[in-house]
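hiii so um. not sure if this is the right channel but i have a protein structure encoded as tokens and i wanna go backwards to a sequence. like what aa goes where. can anyone help
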């Protein structure tokens, strides 16, 4: 009755390997990841794979009908070039902004004399620079794409 995830500490990679091993054994019914997620205990999974009591093992699902893929939209070389130019401009702008921030931090640090004030300003500028470099891409992603919601 132990829960695969809560009690046994399994994760999706462990269960993927488990399902692959079960499918390799012809005497066992095939188990999918969906089956494991829907029946997260050994008892529930065995009951679901065995089918009705005394009945045969469950039948394999029918093959899904694959939709006909759409023809690819022809692309022009100017679209690729403009995308590359835009990426280059964003990279250069990002580098320029990071350089300006680093230079202004250096100017602020070098404006003071003494070991302790220089050290404190260096730690402050370095910490602020680290936090800024870590949070700015997230903020830009949220502005351009939006927050992920399940």
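sure thing!! here u go:
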């Amino acid at each position: 009755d132990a829960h695969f995830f809560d009690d046994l500490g399994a994760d999706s990679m462990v269960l993927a390997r488990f399902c692959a091993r079960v499918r390799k054994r012809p005497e066992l019914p095939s188990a999918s990841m969906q089956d494991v997620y829907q029946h997260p205990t050994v008892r529930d999974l065995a009951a679901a794979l065995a089918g009705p009591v005394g009945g045969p093992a469950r039948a394999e699902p029918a093959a899904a009908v694959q939709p006909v893929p759409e023809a690819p939209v022809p692309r022009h070389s100017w679209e690729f070039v403009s995308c590359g130019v835009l990426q280059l401009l964003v990279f250069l702008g990002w580098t320029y902004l990071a350089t300006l921030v680093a230079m202004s931090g250096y100017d602020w640090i070098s404006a003071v004399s003494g070991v302790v004030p220089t050290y404190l300003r260096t730690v402050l500028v370095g910490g602020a620079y680290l936090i800024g470099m870590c949070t700015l891409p997230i903020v830009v992603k949220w502005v351009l794409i939006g927050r992920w919601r399940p």
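oh and DSSP finds five helices and no strands in the chain.
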